[in-house]
Design brief:
The structure is a homodimer. By secondary structure, chain A is of the alpha+beta class. The first copy, chain A, contains 20 helices and 32 strands. At the A-B interface, α7 and α13 of A face α8 and α14 of B.
Chain lengths: ~850, ~850
Amino acid sequence: MKTSRYGHPDPVDRTRFPVDEWAWTETSHSTEDLGLTETVFAVANGYLGMRGNVEEGRDVHSHGTYINGFHETWQIRHAEEAFGFAQTGQTIVNVPDVKTIKLYVDDEPLMLAMADLEHYERRLDFRDGVLRRSLIWVTPSGKRVRIESQRMVSFEQRHLAVMTFEVTLLDVDAPVAISSQILNRQDGEGEYHLASAAAGEGMDPRKARKLTERVLEPQTHWSSERRTILSYRCANSGMTLAVAVDHEIATESDFEELSHAEADLGKKIYRIKGKVGQPIRISKVAAYHTSRGVPVRELVDRARRTLDRVRDDGVDECFAEQRRWLDRFWSDADVRVDTHPAIQQAIRWNLFQLAQATGRVEQSGVAAKGVSGSGYEGHYFWDTETYVLPFLSYTSPRVARGALRFRYLMLPAARRRAYDLSQLGALYPWRTINGEEASAYYAAGTAQYHINADIAFALCKYVQATGDDDFMLREGIDILVLTARLWSDLGFWLGQGEDRRFHLHGVTGPDEYTTVVNNNLFTNVMASDNLRQAARWARRLAESYPEGYARMCRRLDLVDDEVAEWSECAERMYFPYDEGLGIHPQDQHFLEREVWDLAATPDDKWPLLLHYHPLVIYRFQVLKQADVVAALFLQGQMFTMEQKRADFEYYDPITTGDSTLSSVVQSIVAAEVGHQRLAIGYFYAGLYVDLADLHGNASDGVHVASAGGVWNSLVYGFGGMRDHNGTLTFDPRLPAHWPSLEFGLRVRGHRISVELRCDRIEFTLGEVDAEAARVEGTSIDVIVRGERVTVRPGAPTVVALDGQGPVIERQLGSVPLVGNKDEHEMLHTAGVPVARPHRRKRGEAAS
Amino acid sequence: MKTSRYGHPDPVDRTRFPVDEWAWTETSHSTEDLGLTETVFAVANGYLGMRGNVEEGRDVHSHGTYINGFHETWQIRHAEEAFGFAQTGQTIVNVPDVKTIKLYVDDEPLMLAMADLEHYERRLDFRDGVLRRSLIWVTPSGKRVRIESQRMVSFEQRHLAVMTFEVTLLDVDAPVAISSQILNRQDGEGEYHLASAAAGEGMDPRKARKLTERVLEPQTHWSSERRTILSYRCANSGMTLAVAVDHEIATESDFEELSHAEADLGKKIYRIKGKVGQPIRISKVAAYHTSRGVPVRELVDRARRTLDRVRDDGVDECFAEQRRWLDRFWSDADVRVDTHPAIQQAIRWNLFQLAQATGRVEQSGVAAKGVSGSGYEGHYFWDTETYVLPFLSYTSPRVARGALRFRYLMLPAARRRAYDLSQLGALYPWRTINGEEASAYYAAGTAQYHINADIAFALCKYVQATGDDDFMLREGIDILVLTARLWSDLGFWLGQGEDRRFHLHGVTGPDEYTTVVNNNLFTNVMASDNLRQAARWARRLAESYPEGYARMCRRLDLVDDEVAEWSECAERMYFPYDEGLGIHPQDQHFLEREVWDLAATPDDKWPLLLHYHPLVIYRFQVLKQADVVAALFLQGQMFTMEQKRADFEYYDPITTGDSTLSSVVQSIVAAEVGHQRLAIGYFYAGLYVDLADLHGNASDGVHVASAGGVWNSLVYGFGGMRDHNGTLTFDPRLPAHWPSLEFGLRVRGHRISVELRCDRIEFTLGEVDAEAARVEGTSIDVIVRGERVTVRPGAPTVVALDGQGPVIERQLGSVPLVGNKDEHEMLHTAGVPVARPHRRKRGEAAS
């Protein structure tokens, strides 16, 4: 794992996965990395997701079909209980699987692992959103059979999945049987991972939990010749589900068909007298409907309606809709890098994953793995707000708004949680599906109070990018007020006069290798912004919308004094700073720790969290992920360039990157402070997290935050965009071996295309929404390296980049995946003693 | 609970529990406080313990019979797992119950809760160690029946329990039936508490865990007319158990008897044609034998031998032996306070509990509840070494040696644990039965590294008190070397030249309301002593026993440099000190926290741990128990009187005493620094912890550490004894309303009686062991208020206490149970802002 992160810049086996700018393609099947390919070839729309399991059902790492937010609850059993510990466990449920379509020729089953395949290709097309597989199978008796299949989860109709399966005998006639299933797996076969096994991989806290009790209780089952419908209810959470499937066959050959349904199984079997050259085409259309507790008969009706519509319009229309939806997506979201097709492909795969994780999320959040796997149990974290919402705000504002509304709807639970933690206001849960805190390890969970500020930050960024004041007035302001109220209640004042400062104690920052500290810089910086924005918006709404503001004040018991208090807390927030080193300590006492000697840490001890007791890790200066450095990016306006460089150079050599949230942030700040090789290296480390399985756990699902971070690295990192003060600024740092970088932004109803080249940056104003034009005017101002530029509709606005040139220099040869050893060594603060927290003296064996 | 701690100085209901200097007596039965009385009337010998359940079996809080160290193991399931977390849960097993003897007259059962009782008395006699109950029952049909029963667990034969049950019809003849049982309760009826229930009492981490699987697997059952034998094996731990019971009846009346045995039940039933005035006397003798895995047939043989011996000698001899054993105990252990019979009674109850918890422990440790209940799951903590071993070392050195040998035998596991925590040497588990760490919450468990130093401290105190160099040479030195090695590996150096200091980071001190801190004063002080003693003993053994020393060096890979390093670490250990306040901060950053406003904390929020999330508690200056103040006592030679007073006065007002380990230590230091009312108040708070159920959880078992602390308070606190430098010193502070305080000490083979009066202290040298006389001489030196006094055999050595008088002044009226509010307010450091961590502004309800 660690070694692979220092490998070749293109870490993908290109003989098996050839470069294709618009697709991820596999040219041979392997049972060695099924977990990885199931994730990489998953199809999803943010609501419904299906892992890339092979059609035949066998050869599996984890069968998986997930519906965002569809979860079971269970009581968390703490090995040692304490007041306020999270009580309600929540785990995304693996819903009945409709992917399986088994093929028999001469009654011999097609089993991919053993099949003699004359041809194999699997291709996930980013433009039309369809996973296609094409085989020529030579049966044990030597008959050649072509099998073409397609699978898609519809972006246009979020409850819908469409599959086609086409078999053509190429040499001789033969009896063909096709058995298509709807299977509710209750036996734990492959789909859950055991979180709490004794040791080894099973101990990985990042995996999901095995639910040993029956989760989905069958409610009804029904089948006709065409249609099968099963319905279920979650035993504890009471959530309900209906899944309905239509089958249709098109063939010139004679056939008979059988239908069958029981509680956990629906089956459709075709027996065909196959004729050479006559295709047998099965279409299988599935609709999933879920709810928090609507009776299943109602869901069954909804599922029928979905299927009836497809029956009337035909599946080809589904494929056409899918293409049209994605055309719109790409016109907003595509980022183009000329002459580097492999990088272009990887970028598009990541952007496509963002579409698959968020496209039709609507009333839910965006889980850490989207709906591509069960990793992190389908929970929502700060990932969404910090890594994904910037992308959504600038490319799909409607989706961003939905995700923020979801946090608004979660406020009552967050208020109860604050109460449990003896605080006023609202405290968002560190990880949750239903709004209740589900983090069973508070030191790296509940203690991450910064999630409050991360949500407020994303909210303000969204409103700033879109100009959606209406959302702020009606719902967003409640989030700002209640989060700010928590901060002002949590902190306390120390010092007198000019030295009086507001302190926040006993919190954990993003870096989980240090927990429960005082004045974590990231937290204090973000909380300060939270307080400032709350005060700013309160005053602004009071002025612009006095009636709505007055209603809110009554609703939340807000008085002017409290708003004034927020401003004071924000302005006088304590930020730890070390004069000697000229850096910001990660927390008030961070520099008192010994420095972990990462260079001397054996390869088999990575990631640290799986090989050292937390008490050991917490005792050292060592980072799981960017913490101060994340603050430098998110609140860059609060730091000077010198501070940023000093902080980056101090923290980078002690950052393990054991979290995939780290490298994309390190890339952005490295680019800003001029560490070119590190910037591009960390970018690759984010770009290939899943495609090259750099962290060894891609099998658990897509790292959605990292995918969002790829967009951030491109736009904020190399594009040099910032949006701290309401106006977009650009200080580009194009990698020297990239001739250009192009991306689009939606800004307050305008659509701007940005094309960056080494000597210039061009802005083109596209379509302008009429309402936006009325409010915002038909032009938009940006700032390029300190100079204000007005972008107007029509011809591109071209800004020459002067002699200072891009910060990223041109002479880049082969770049290592993460950083550069020489550069790291150079960075290592001279004279700081380092220690290895593993046995280093007197080699006594444990007796 | 809290309010009761501020109640009357004698918080016991004397109408129900009359004063008796040599017994605890109950004059009426109540079902309201069965948990409490089951604990207070428990009989035990350190190996075997039986709760004070009523003979009839009904009316129960928790049935309980426990055998020290007899435990089941189970895999700890952490809600969120991490490397190095404790894996092996261990829980003391409630073994088959032999206490139940049911009585029927006219086929009407005696049920205490509903019975019409003309007379009731229950009495636990501290001098003969027998629990006796005497009833006159008026049956529903109006017949008067006298029932006298006895129960004892033998100190002389540790596997043995003896019961007698005598029934006499007082008015008319009647059929009498007596049903005596051996019952293995597997249904969880009453005997386990659920640790992890959703909320409320069930959440209390101090209770034991419910084992839901069958624990004791039946192996054999057998019965004859006289004898019944059942045997079992623990499902996971593989420990084995045999319990054998003999019954005998003595009566003039006609009777028939029935015997029956099955897997979980043995029954002996007598049907007697009862005659007025003819006593029916049943004796029931039980033997328990256990092992780590010896086949049960072997245990059955052992149990037969135990019973055969009693059969031959008669039960009266068992009662006589018991009295002789206790006579010896009291001659060593008694502490006498003249003219205060209620206090005397309570002191003796506590000392008797020490006998019951430790008397026949032998190859096991001393659990937090002894063998009187399932609280803390039968685990061994630092309690033994810190609170109980001083008593044992000075009154029962052989028992002390056994407890220390137990820690020696645990060294291999402690070495493995150090390895798991990335350290050299040995790290003792925070809580354990079998030597493996069983603490599932590391912040208040494994992080308490100080347990290493506590064990080393107790070891050195034992060797110093007894002169048992042989034990040190053969086994003790391994403990010293491996614990010192851990400290020198755990810490690190900071600073240059004279300021160079040895720091210990990321540990938790005794006070569990602050966890995982840097340079906890208690830990650093104790570790410093551990390192110093290890170096001192290494050098001493090298000089006195060069061969044995050389063997040890080879065994433990010890070189002279390492010994030198220990001395340096000890001498240059960092001790946090605040010049401004003139106090020692509990840890390096303790004073940066807000001060918890205990005065404003609502009554229903005590103890804090059951009402506030750990994150909230940890954020404040508030103590569960004495921490710095414990260091002031244990390592008093390292502090000046001014420091002690300043530290005590700073910490006392912010110490909740939510732990029962606190008040006895606070009493000792209050006495030393001159806070008379607090000293006596905290003494009472310790004295009545169980007798008045001051912490509301006496039902879980006896607070053995507090019982040890009562002896410490008397001898170290009021007696003013210290033993820091190898010579006993005395600076007495007799409470003014106590005319005298007398106690005995065994010191290096001598027995010294100490009698303290307000104007003098007398020392009398008793029996002198011949070997001791040869080694140590026939006299012993002590120091009284700085003056050396030689105590010789014969007449008492009397030392007048001069005009400075006892520190405790005479004018004490009614003293509150804990401290004194005025005194507390006076102590409260002026100007320190305090904060309440409960909702204090804008009374919004959780929505």
